[in-house]
Write a structure and sequence with these properties.
12% strand, 133 residues, 41% helix, three-stranded antiparallel beta sheet
Length: 133
């Protein structure tokens, strides 16, 4: 139930909070400024980590990016970050891409990176052949 204050404004119930600082009603495109693509090719399985944690950088980030930065201190995939934080996958990709552009996070190569590199495949095959039977 809402009530009117002396100035005629309505006092609505407090919106639900997510991650302790933002309303759940914020649209995903508002978090990314309408962007849906990143400079880096980020697949669901792309692993993300923080090479050197910086508390001052963490404090300067917007809440969603801060939570991603904090969670990436342990190596996690884009999909894991999305699921753990209940943030849409596309939003996580854009925010992690921004963190990577700042040098705040490290993006680990995926199998897709080596898709056309025959020398890597040959080294893997050679290693498999050398394993004891």
């Amino acid at each position: 139930m809402t009530t009117s204050s002396a100035d005629g404004a309505r006092n609505a119930p407090e919106p639900e909070k997510k991650q302790g600082s933002r309303s759940r009603r914020i649209r995903p495109y508002a978090l990314t400024g309408g962007r849906t693509r990143t400079q880096h090719p980020l697949l669901m399985e792309t692993m993300v980590s923080v090479p050197q944690y910086d508390p001052a950088l963490s404090e300067s980030l917007m809440p969603e990016s801060r939570v991603l930065y904090e969670r990436a201190r342990g190596r996690l995939s884009i999909a894991e970050l999305s699921a753990l934080l209940s943030i849409p996958l596309g939003v996580v990709r854009v925010l992690v891409g921004d963190l990577a552009a700042q040098g705040a996070v490290l993006l680990h190569p995926t199998a897709d990176t080596f898709d056309h590199d025959h020398s890597v495949l040959e080294r893997i095959l050679s290693g498999l052949r050398e394993l004891p039977a």
